[in-house]
């Protein structure tokens, strides 16, 4: 019987795409530039590739901060902005943006009281803690499993071992809800817990099914939990 639910934060509870677009726009204003259509898509492609490298251990978070925006600006043809400097500005605006994913509040309201809820994330602890508080979501959680505090990152075994132990639940009592096939779904599966893949970006569905349940909207989860 499921007693415990792990829920990813970015693009599961909080809309990272909307928040990142806001942070880009506000950051560019500081340089007298305007956000242009297509910039987020350029950022997302590069950012997703960099995070995959972090997840497989070939890049660190500090390394990402040094190269991410230089790669984006070079690819998009934006001149005159120092990437690492913009990284700090982007982070500051991102840290205070907390746009919920459609259905996130309803999901938490439905699950709260029925299950122990824990938020999971590879993002910075203070940032994620503040954003959940700002979105009025933190009150639903028994704890936050943020990689910075855990000392390991999704999808590593060390990360999930920590979460399972500190949730005080057995593996067959836990289900994880997340949008990332690598960090969330593969990580959860390898840890021996059930998973719900929330296909937030409506990406192509791979032939190799590694999830237990599949949804394209958070509202569908009420049919599972």
What does this structure look like?
By secondary structure, this protein is of the alpha/beta class. The chain folds into two domains: 4-15 and 100-223, HAD superfamily/HAD-like (Rossmann fold, 3-Layer(aba) Sandwich), CATH 3.40.50; 16-94, DNA polymerase, domain 1. 46% of the residues lie in helices and 12% in strands. It contains nine helices and six strands; from the N terminus they run E-H-H-H-H-H-E-H-E-H-H-E-H-E-E. It has helices spanning 16-29, 39-55, 61-76, 83-94, 104-111, 125-134, 147-150, 157-167, 181-191; strands spanning 4-8, 116-121, 143-146, 174-178, 194-198, 213-215. It has a six-stranded parallel beta sheet with strand order 3-2-1-4-5-6, with helices on both faces. The longest helix is centred in the N-terminal third of the chain and has 17 residues, at 39-55. The chain is globular. The termini are close together.
How many DSSP E strands? 6
User: What is the CATH top level name of the largest domain?
Assistant: Alpha Beta
| Order of secondary-structure elements | EHHHHHEHEHHEHEE
Assembly form of the protein: single chain
Query: What would the average pLDDT be, to the nearest integer?
Result: 96
- Count up the helices: 9
Low-confidence segments, given as residue ranges, are none
Principal-axis shape equals globular
Largest sheet: 6 strands, parallel
Strand order of the largest sheet: 3-2-1-4-5-6
What structural class should be given to the helix and strand makeup? alpha/beta
User: Can you say what the CATH homologous superfamily of the largest domain is?
Assistant: HAD superfamily/HAD-like
Hey, roughly how much beta strand do the residues contain?
5-15%
Gyration radius over CA: 18 Å
């Amino acid at each position: 019987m499921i007693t415990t639910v792990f829920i990813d934060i970015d693009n599961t509870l909080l809309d990272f795409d909307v928040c990142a677009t806001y942070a880009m726009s506000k950051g560019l204003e500081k340089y007298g530039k305007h956000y242009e259509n297509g910039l987020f898509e350029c950022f997302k492609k590069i950012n997703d590739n960099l995070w995959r490298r972090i997840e497989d251990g070939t890049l660190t978070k500090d390394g990402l901060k040094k190269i991410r925006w230089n790669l984006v600006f070079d690819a998009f043809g934006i001149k005159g902005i120092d990437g690492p400097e913009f990284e700090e500005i982007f982070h500051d605006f991102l840290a205070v943006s907390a746009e919920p994913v459609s259905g996130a509040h309803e999901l938490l309201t439905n699950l709260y009281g029925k299950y122990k809820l824990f938020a999971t994330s590879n993002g910075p602890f203070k940032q994620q803690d503040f954003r959940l508080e700002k979105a009025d979501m933190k009150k639903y959680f028994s704890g936050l499993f943020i990689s910075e505090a855990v000392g390991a990152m999704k999808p590593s075994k060390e990360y999930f071992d920590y979460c399972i132990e500190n949730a005080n639940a057995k593996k067959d009592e836990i289900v994880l809800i997340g949008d990332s096939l690598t960090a969330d779904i593969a990580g959860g599966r390898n840890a021996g817990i059930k998973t719900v893949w929330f296909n937030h970006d409506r990406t192509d569905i791979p032939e190799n099914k590694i999830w237990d349940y599949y949804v394209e909207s958070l509202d569908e989860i009420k049919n599972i939990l």
